[in-house]
Amino acid sequence: VEAVHLIADGKAPRIPQPKEGATYEGIQKKENAEISWDQPAAALHNWIRGHDKVPGAWATIDSQVVTFYGSSLLDAAVPAGQELAIKGASRPGLITKNGLVVFGNDGKMVLVRNLQFEDGKMIPASKYFSADETTALELTEEEKKMAEDIR
Question: How far apart are CA 103 and CA 84, in angstroms?
Fold first, then answer.
């Protein structure tokens, strides 16, 4: 009751909470989620997974911001794949059948399964080089007739 009266009278002591030892982290912003490549693979994995889904850890590839999702540590021989230059990385990534393999400064690997482009389009990382390919839709005669009937 005494505390309530002190507050009502405007006489309650005001002690600002110290920031030291605080555990709350503010809302992450996209501009703060850029991947720093000079880290061991475990730190890269933790950074990517820690920012998965919001705001999404990102890097610059071919002059565009690409967001990485779904990482896991890869403990195997270096897989075969097509090299992909990533800005800031000391070693190019590899587009493999399972996804994008990136390397930590310790030489260990992280596998990233999905990539999202600035326009919002998300693709499996393994399809990076085939993302621009489009296939023309060819209709059979029966399908053409059905399309005409629908029109």
Answer: 12
Looking at residue 151, its pLDDT comes to 83
- Under the banding of pLDDT at 50, 70 and 90, the label for residue 111 is very high
Q: Which CATH superfamily is domain 29-132 in?
A: Formyl transferase, C-terminal domain (3.10.25.10)
Distance CA 11, CA 89 (A): 57
- All structural domains of the chain with their residue ranges: 29-132
